[in-house]
Amino acid sequence: NAGVMQNPRHLVRRRGQEARLRCSPMKGHSHVYWYRQLPEEGLKFMVYLQKENIIDESGMPKERFSAEFPKEGPSILRIQQVVRGDSAAYFCASSRPVRGETQYFGPGTRLLVL
Amino acid sequence: EDQVTQSPEALRLQEGESSSLNCSYTVSGLRGLFWYRQDPGKGPEFLFTLYSAGEEKEKERLKATLTKKESFLHITAPKPEDSATYLCAVQYREGTDKLIFGTGTRLQVFP
Questions:
Q1: Is A24 on the interface with B (CB under 8 A)?
Q2: Which of B43, B96, B103 is closest, CB to CB, to A105?
Q3: CA distances from B24 to A11, A38, A103, B6, B89 (A)
Q4: Which of A64, A90, B45, B66 could form a disulfide with B50 if both were Cys (CB 3.0 to 4.6 A apart)?
Q5: Which of A102, A107, A108 sits opposite B46 (nearest CB)?
Q6: Which of B42, B46, B97 faces A99 most closely, judged by CB atoms?
Q7: Cα distance between residue B71 and residue B106, in whole Å
Q8: Distance of alpha carbon B111 from alpha carbon B44, whole angstroms
Q9: d(CA B79, nearest CA chain A) in Å
Q10: A91: burial class by Cβ within 10 Å (0-12, 13-18, 19+)?
Q11: Running DSSP on this structure, what letter comes out for residue A65?
Q12: CA atoms within 13 A on the CB side of B83
């Protein structure tokens, strides 16, 4: 049973470009969460999605960031017009559709903005 | 503001030297407390979930306990391969299932 998959593992962008991060949840999981880990900081919640629905985006910056989890295909975290402060590790986690279920994390995408 | 605080920030142990990591929380209405292990350059790896005060869980050299205000991760006779950052996260009873993480304890075990 494959774990949570994320790609790319490393992404380099120049300021002003767009970054697209993909996450495929574990089999049987329909809940997806995105977290960001800035250098020397802890993991911070960004957004929680179910298929075709954003449930909680309270941790997402209001501008330039968006997320989706379509009926088919992976969840996408999109960052428009990246700035150097967006450089971080972005982790996706997934869980079964039960309240309080364990969230299993993927290997992360490390974004570097030049 | 609800917070999760982990201590110590860093811990150096000799192989075989048992110790405990602390996670204290001020979340009102706890649904669950989660422990993860994170190796450099990797994603957090799930260890334990605790749901109620008094609960204990064990796995190999690790044992997690929970009270109403804090959780401990006890490491018995650690080995160098236990070196990692240990993360604690809490989840509210109300609202969505987002996790609130502490900043972690960086553990180094020397042979």
A1: no
A2: B43
A3: 35, 22, 20, 6, 10
A4: B66
A5: A102
A6: B97
A7: 17
A8: 24
A9: 24
A10: buried
A11: E
A12: 11
What is the greatest pairwise CA distance in chain B? 45
Please indicate whether, in this complex, the C-beta atoms of A100 and B103 are within 8 angstroms of each other: no
DSSP letters for A69-106:
--SSS-EEEEE-S--GGG-EEEEEEEE-SSTTPPPEE-
To test the contact with chain B by mutation, choose from A43, A91, A98 the residue with the greatest count of B C-beta atoms within 10 A, namely A43
**CB-based contact A31 B89, cutoff 8 Å:** no
In this predicted structure, what is the pLDDT of residue A1? 55
The whole-number average pLDDT for the span B2-10 is: 91
Helix or strand or coil: residue B108? strand
Q: What is the per-residue pLDDT across B53-99, written as a single tens digit (0 to 9) for each?
A: 999 999 999 999 999 899 999 999 999 999 999 999 999 888 789 99
- CA separation for the pair B20, A80 (Å, rounded): 43
Residues A76 and A92: their CA atoms lie apart, in Å, by: 10
Residues 19-38 of B with CB under 8 A from A: 31-32, 34, 36
